[in-house]
Specification:
- The protein is mainly beta.
- 12% of the residues lie in helices and 48% in strands.
- The longest helix has 17 residues.
Length: 682
């Protein structure tokens, strides 16, 4: 046998070995989103990511036709590896089989295991010579409807006094979505959503659902590489000036510090805030691409009347909820215009771009007159410009961006990810966001809630001595030069995380994690005004997963949380859970369940834990107080193209007479919810 054929055979066997342990989507979603979910909210919507991963599992990326954009869509593939892959293809010719991936520099066994379900070697289709009848006949349609509700009655639904705040609608949650796709060149998306407490075909929601979102997306039409009409997201650079839709930062995957910008994409999430509405297109002229965009939409805002018939917006809402009379009154109170252009140049491994856009409101934004708001944006209009770059060279990936809000401040970010050794990688990131920098569409790497008033330096290492062992560590040192909420003086802190993972390939893995965070807040002691105290949180986690056979898997976690603030009592919390996963290859029924026990004194020692859910829905509920948590998910396939999901989940607390607070308060010690979801592909 010829030596090269022998090598291909050996690699093929390795591939078969890897495929037999194809990753669960849950692993990718949890690694990318868990720390982001903790900082944002337990119910933040990650459906856009899950939808992408599900789509590329069903329609793998053709390694011989991709320009790298689809690989960036996956979010977990480092740009350095994408550049190496494209260069390998240019140098060696088209891939004969996906086995060749192992010959590309920068691919470790873990990345291979994650990537294999999403790639293939084949021939891609296009819109050339495709008529309307063929589009309708050969395209893929998907219709999905989801219903859910909390079973216990909350206080907001019991209030009948019209002078008091209350929920105006039913406790039902309804979400419906439709998708049409013809290959990767045409996509139609429509989302319709009603949150719990919102009216339905009544009151302010007389047209049915509270939120409608839709888009038409066409790509790869000559020089017109992308065009979206409707709702869309733009992602450029490192997210300092323009970044809509999903954005990730610090986490167990250190490559997440380098934003994977996808440019122009249709917006398909159910989140009601992080998008633009109008039209945008990307045109390619050789190495140059140009993306003009225009958006007009209404935002929720709290209107303040300042006399002489003058009104202003004291704050813009990010919740997207319209349940109470106040929320309904604030709905669509502000009109926002956005127009701009991105120009990007690419030559081999170098990409450089400039984004400039103008934002205008029909009502002036005037935050409350508080000392911490001294440098906040005020006015009706804002002009943003940024310049960004990324370049890979000999195992080093460099990236950065500088952004300016005209008439105010700057924001800078620069970093690198380097392969120091086949088993050792380094990540560095420096950021400096001035306190008077403003942007309504920024999602740069940050510890705070916005890209302003922060300086920080991040460093991380990943060590792979073998395919069984991975050790990662990062340390992020940060400062806030100006005041923040509950912090009445400049402050600083540190965020450190280290994790060791051992994998018995195809069978099991165990990881041990330690995280330490220290920040400063207003002291609770009777001290002079603006005296700060140190607040520290420590978490220790032991996580394990074991595959009993091709059908049954188990997953376990033990997590400790420790909280301490100067002058306060120290708190210590504990959470333990056990998961059972039933997933036969071709059976109609599959499912998973969890039983968790927790003893957590209060909110300060809260613990978030990733949960499986119905398709396109994942959650990170907050554990606090004492009690148990359980859920059961079931999926049944009626036919090859029709599925139904059922979910029941419950918290049962010990020694409490009321769960929740305010309008969400529930009498008793139980909070449970159900979800039913139906999907039909045709």
């Amino acid at each position: 046998m010829h030596f090269s054929r022998y090598i291909i055979l050996v690699i093929g066997l390795l591939h078969m070995y890897a495929v037999s342990a194809q990753t669960d989507v849950d692993l990718i979603v949890e690694r990318l989103t868990e720390l982001t979910a903790e900082e944002l909210a337990e119910d933040f919507d990650f459906s856009e990511l899950i939808e992408r991963l599900d789509y590329y599992q069903r329609h793998p990326i053709d390694l011989n036709n991709t320009d790298g954009r689809a690989l960036r869509d996956l979010q977990f593939v480092p740009q350095l590896f994408i550049d190496n892959l494209l260069e390998h293809r240019d140098r060696s010719g088209k891939f004969v089989a996906i086995y060749e991936l192992q010959a590309i520099e920068g691919l470790d066994i873990e990345l291979l295991r994650l990537l294999l379900p999403y790639v293939t070697v084949g021939v891609s289709s296009s819109l050339s010579d495709v008529g309307m009848v063929e589009l309708l006949r050969e395209g893929e349609h998907e219709l999905m409807v989801r219903y859910g509700r909390i079973l216990q009655r909350r206080r907001g639904y019991e209030i009948t006094d019209t002078a008091r705040s209350r929920y105006l609608g039913s406790p039902d949650q309804v979400f419906a979505r439709y998708r049409y796709q013809f290959g990767r060149d045409v996509q139609v998306a429509l989302n319709m959503k009603k949150d719990a407490g919102e009216a339905f075909f009544a009151g302010a929601q007389r047209y049915g659902f509270d939120f409608y979102s839709g888009s038409l997306y066409i790509r790869n039409q000559g020089k017109l590489t992308d065009v979206v009409v409707g709702d869309y997201a733009l992602q450029f650079g490192q997210g300092l000036a323009m970044w809509g839709g999903l954005g990730f930062g610090k986490g167990a995957m250190i490559q997440g510090i380098a934003k994977q910008a996808t440019g122009l994409r249709p917006y398909t999430s159910s989140n009601e805030v992080l998008f633009l509405r109008g039209g945008a297109a990307t045109l390619a002229f050789g190495r140059l691409s140009v993306t003009p965009f225009l958006s007009l939409r209404r935002l929720d805002g709290s209107i303040s009347h300042m006399g002489d018939s003058i009104s202003a917006v004291s704050s813009l809402s990010q919740a997207g909820l319209h349940r109470t009379p106040t929320e309904v009154a604030n709905r669509g109170a502000v009109q926002q215009w956005v127009s701009g252009t991105n120009v990007q140049y690419q030559y081999r491994r170098l990409r450089m771009g400039i984004t400039s856009y103008y934002t205008r409101f029909d009502t002036a934004v005037e935050p409350r007159q508080l000392l911490r708001n001294q440098y906040a944006f005020r006015g009706k209009a804002l002009w943003n410009t940024s310049i960004y770059y990324n370049h890979s060279w000999r195992g080093i990936y460099l990236f950065g961006e500088v952004a300016h809000s005209h008439g105010s401040g700057f924001a800078f970010a620069n970093g690198l990810i380097a392969t120091l050794h086949p088993h050792l990688s380094l990540a560095l990131h420096y950021r400096n966001y001035q306190r008077n920098y403003h942007s309504f569409f920024s999602q740069g790497l940050a510890t705070g809630s916005s890209v302003s008033n922060e300086r920080g330096f991040y460093s991380g290492l990943v060590y792979h001595p073998s395919r069984k062992v991975e050790w990662m560590v990062y340390a992020d040192f940060f400062q806030f030069p100006w005041l923040r909420y509950r912090v009445d003086a400049p402050s600083h802190g540190i965020d450190m995380l280290t994790q060791f993972t051992f994998t018995w390939y195809k069978k099991a893995n165990v990881s041990v994690r330690y995280r330490y965070r220290k920040r400063q807040e207003n002291a609770t002691l009777e001290l002079p005004h603006r005296t700060l105290g140190d607040v520290s949180r420590q978490q220790v986690r032991v996580n394990g997963q074991y595959k009993l056979n091709a059908i049954w898997s188990m997953r376990n976690r033990v997590e400790l949380s420790h909280y301490q603030k100067e002058g306060d009592v120290t708190e210590l919390g504990l959470m333990v859970y056990h998961d059972v996963i039933y997933k036969p290859m071709h059976a109609r029924l599959s499912g998973n369940m969890r039983l968790a026990v927790f003893g957590i004194p209060g909110y300060n020692t809260r613990i978030y834990a990733y949960e499986n859910d119905v398709l396109y829905a994942y959650s990170f509920p907050l554990y606090h107080n004492d009690g148990i948590r359980a859920y059961l998910n079931l999926r049944y396939r009626f036919a090859r193209k029709m599925d139904i999901w059922l979910r029941y989940a419950a918290f049962v607390y010990r020694d409490v007479t009321e769960v929740g607070s305010g309008l969400d308060a529930i009498a008793g010690n139980r909070r449970s919810d159900i979800r039913i979801q139906w999907r039909w592909r045709f």
